[in-house]
Every structure is written in C-alpha cells, then in structure tokens.
Design goal:
The protein is of the alpha/beta class and 290 residues long. It has one domain: Alpha-Beta Barrel (TIM Barrel), CATH 3.20.20.220. 45% of the residues lie in helices and 17% in strands. The strands form 2 sheets. An 8-stranded parallel β-barrel has the order 1-2-3-4-5-6-7-10. Strands 8-9 form a two-stranded antiparallel ribbon. The relative contact order is 0.15. The model has no long low-confidence stretch (mean pLDDT 90). Keywords: FAD, Flavoprotein, Oxidoreductase.
C-alpha cells in the first residue's frame, strides 16, 4: 500500500468526545482536521466547546451544520457567530441531516449554502457529503443532482471544499463512484469514509443505519464474518484494496476520513501502526528492486 494515501487523514468526533481527544492528542499529528458532528442530543454550547477544544489542542476544527436540524435562520446565524467569535469558523461540513422532516426552514445542505451566511461569518472551506452506496432516505436519481449542485455552489461562492463519503466495507463501489463523480465534472478532493477499528456488532449497527452493504461476501472481503459477531475489525483490507487500485488520473485527489465511533485514541493508534507497517513494506520493496 502507498503510505501517502494516509497523508492528511481526518477524524470524526462528537461534541461529547473532548475527553477522548485530550487522551488521544499525542497520537494525532498536529494540524489534523477533526470533524465535529451535529447530533440531536447536543446543544450549541456543546458543539462550540468541542470546536474550541479541537483548536486549543492544535488541530483544525470542522464543525458540522445539519440543515434539517436547524430550527430557524437565527439558530444558524447564532451558531456561525459563535464559531466566528472563537476563531473556529474557517472550515465547516454542511449536510442535510437525519430528520425525515426539516425542523426549520432548511430542506437540505444546498439551502444552507445559498443563504450567504457562511462567507459572512468567515467560512472559507466547505465539506459536503457523498454516498457511494446510496442513501437509505434519498432516491439514487436525486443524489447525483444534489451533489453536483452543492459542488457548483461551493465553486460559485469561491470556497475551497471537499466531499466526505459515508463509510463502507467494499472498495469496489467507492472506486466506481469516484470515476462517476469525475465524469460529472466534480473535481473536489474526496475524503473516503473509513470506519475505525471497532467491534463487529457496532460496525453492523452503524452500517444498517446508513444503508451500507453488508452481504456475506462483502463481510469476508472486509475481514469479518456475519456469523461471528464477537470480534473486532479494522479497515486494513479495505485500505489496501483502495490503494492498490487508486489511480489519480481516474479518481482525482483522494484522502481518508475515519469515523471513530467514540474511539479516538484507538483509531489514532491503529493509524500510526498501520502507516508504520505500510512504510516498512514499501521500503522493503524498494530495497528488493534496487
């Protein structure tokens, strides 16, 4: 595997994971981008506190904005103003969100992008979501127009941006989706979502929630069995498969985004070990060739 694939990886945490980030800080490279989710059970204060902590610890906070969870334009302005006051508004990730019905005026991420409020409050970089295996609540025929419209809005407002994908267990649909994305004229960097090491039961629970494919063949390819749910699994095989077939000319700029499921230290330590092992193998191959 090419170790460069893990250069500039990003991580995801919730607003309540600040103690875990404190514990993991020495295992995470300075300047790492850390996304902060916008969960229903967390208030604005919790999210702002988490963004401040990420910045204080030497990382780049990427607060999420969940369009359908915003009760009003005022709520969006207050959140952005709080980020701006703390110096944590430069990077955001805008997503539609889980509620079947919007809790306020914003139907989707594009509606938030079109408010003009992001740049007014100092946002410079906008992340948006991608779904290589589809979305359980959105028809496939709607996903591509939604993504291309968001990418166009990012370009029109002169933001930099990227696409962060939902995690999966199979590199094949991810690589095919990347080719389709580039064919549609979207050339934003993509951060491929990868689950950090976790128990198989937990992985399957999240997979079911997000519509991620978990057939027996996919499970075997990833490295776990659907008949033995007691173990843990890491994304070793997935990352090797992604790296082996990744072609910048066809797939564009690709990085990796880790969903940590609350295990920031576990994920950070796993990444360090995996990178070390990949670098050692790469050096041994170069020595053999020479």
């Amino acid at each position: 595997m090419d170790p460069a694939l893990l250069d500039d990886f990003s991580l995801e945490m919730t607003g309540k994971d600040v103690p875990g980030l404190e514990e993991a800080r020495d295992s995470i490279p300075p300047g790492t981008r850390i996304n902060i989710t916008f969960l229903a059970g967390e208030d604005t204060g919790t999210r702002l506190t988490a963004a401040r902590a990420v910045k204080r610890l030497g990382f780049v906070p990427v607060p999420h904005i969940s369009a359908r969870r915003l009760p009003s334009r005022t709520a969006l302005e207050e959140f952005l103003a709080g980020l701006a006051a703390d110096g944590t508004a430069g990077n955001v990730f805008v997503v539609g969100g889980d509620p079947a019905r919007p809790e306020g005026p914003y139907e989707d991420a594009l509606a938030v992008l079109r408010t003009g409020l992001l740049r007014r409050h100092g946002v410079r970089h906008v992340g948006i979501a991608g779904y290589p295996e589809g979305h359980p609540g959105i028809a496939d025929r709607l996903l591509w127009p939604a993504l291309t419209d968001k990418a166009a809005a990012i370009g029109a407002d002169r933001f930099t941006g990227d696409v962060i994908t939902q995690f999966g267990f199979d590199a094949d649909p991810v690589l095919a989706w990347l080719e389709a994305l580039r064919a549609r004229g979207v050339h934003l960097p993509v951060r491929v979502g990868v689950p950090g090491p976790a128990g198989v039961r937990r992985l399957l629970r999240y997979a079911g929630r997000f519509g991620v494919g978990t057939s027996a063949s996919v499970a075997r390819k990833y490295g776990f069995s659907l008949t033995n749910l007691m173990g843990t699994a890491g994304p070793d095989r997935f990352l090797h498969a992604l790296s082996d077939r990744y072609d910048p000319a066809r797939h564009g700029t690709v990085k990796v985004h880790f969903y940590t499921f609350g295990g920031l230290r576990t994920t950070a330590d796993w990444i360090a070990r995996f990178r070390h092992g990949s670098e050692r193998v790469s050096e041994e191959r170069q020595t053999t060739r020479s």
